[in-house]
Amino acid sequence: MLVQLFILSIFFVPQLKACVATIPPEEVYITTTEAISPTTTKAISEPVEETTEATTEMTTEVTTAAGAGCGMCDIYAIAPEMPDPDTDFDTSPRDPVDGCQQTHVQCTRDDPLFCDSVVMTAVNADGTHDVSVNSAQTFVDSTLLCGDDGLYSFNGIMGITQLICTFTKCE
């Protein structure tokens, strides 16, 4: 009995899998129209006019222009006052972003003292904001981007008018 069941399953199971009904997707509809309709064209012969007008092609290049002032920021106009002779303010240009000037700024101590905290803040019309990116016991740095208004910005802090470097508890 088992042998007969086995033989039947060998022959009929593959045939049952082949007969599984498929359901077409909802977007498919059976139609009776032809896929390509026959078209007829009628040749019309008309005289061809010759012209002697010269044509000139004009190509214009569209570029996104950087703002008028975004390459004209003066980092020294917002430089922090460094009353301690053992502190320095250094700047270096970075690669422009979308054609706008970018400047790396850093305040450092040149003496053997270590500070508990070194912070760079920026003043704008909204108040004073921390713009420190990297800070250690002897330095702080940041990277500022020149805006269309000719003033620097940092991560959404626009219109920076002054930088301040604060060295706290240096021993």
TrEMBL record:
Pfam families attached here? Answer: DUF281 (PF03436)
Q: Which PANTHER family does the protein's record reference?
A: C6 DOMAIN-CONTAINING PROTEIN-RELATED, PROTEIN CBG25732
User: Which UniProt keywords are listed?
Assistant: Signal
Superkingdom per UniProt: Eukaryota
Kindly indicate whether the keyword Signal belongs to this entry: yes
Query: In the record, which residues are listed under signal peptide?
Result: 1-18
What protein does this entry describe?
A: DUF281 domain-containing protein
Q: Is Signal given among the entry's keywords?
A: yes
Source organism per UniProt: Caenorhabditis briggsae
Q: What positions does the domain DUF281 occupy?
A: 98-152
Q: Which residues cross the membrane?
A: none
